[in-house]
Design a protein that fits this description.
40% helix, 13 strands, 14 helices, alpha/beta, seven-stranded mixed sheet, single chain, 2 domains, D-Maltodextrin-Binding Protein, domain 2, four-stranded mixed sheet
Length: 342
Amino acid sequence: MNKRSMGLLGACALALAGVGAPTLAAVVTVYSADGLRDGRSNWFDTMFAAFTQQTGIDVQYVEAGSGVIVNRVLAERTAAQADVLVTVPPFMQVAAAAHVLQPVLLPAEEEAALGGSSAAPWYPLIQNYSCWVYDAHSLAAPPASFDALLAPRFKGRIQYSTPGQAGDGTAVMLQAFQAYGGKPGGFAFLGRLQANNLGPSSSTGRLAALVNKGEIWIANGDVQMNFAQRREYPNIRPFFPAGPDGARHAMAMPYEIALVAGAPNADAGRKLIAFLLSKPAQQRVFDLAGGFPVRRDVSASGPVAQALQHIVSGVQVWTPDWSQVAKELSVDVERWHQVTGN
């Protein structure tokens, strides 16, 4: 083990002070949306190893699309198999409305560092933003606007993940609503885009590999996941197409973390959540996850932080009313299927 890893373990040991001695529960099970385990030396693997080293609790990891993983929690509500859920909005809101989450109470100083007491039964874990990626080997520049994605030369060269199954795919639908002034205009655009769309995909993560190989030229994504994937897929580049108003927008879509109701190892789950939200763990978010820390006491310093800030420079960030999105999600997804034929 190198000195840097030993330093991380030592810092995380301090973060766990007061959490308690190693638990008798040998395993904590995490159900997670994809993205935080992408790339080598990724944040999840590094943090899980440090957590296990310090507590003796192994981490069992299950990954799928954001909506798929929440549907699994819902299906297991009478006999929960997961302890910790990591997903993105609006799927965390869907889980909360279905009463499959339970509160996690952090110390007051930790709550303050995270922006105050959470009224919801979850915490933000890593801040992130929706985007698109293009193949820089096949294209000299990305399409400048959403309308440009409709060009005939992109027929069969675009693919985006399925709304309702993948968080980033749901973001594509919501971004279309925002760019075209509401649902009628957004669905009209998605209907036209279908002429170029290769087909549905339940997961966004797999699309970057297709873009990198030039099998498709454009796919949807998010800043954190695609930044981490560039270590393995050097041809992908993030971009933000402009709407009809000429402005480029990115939707804020943080990874969120919660404790599952009826979790078989709830105490171990609470310890893992506290560990991942601790300052030592959050200080590694920039360089290992390629995302943005959620703690107020972690500064944006270093080359990775600067590179990430450059990616979103000049882009207007917006946040939907997630509670309303969650209420209307099933109807909107059904409408998406109707207009796209997927």
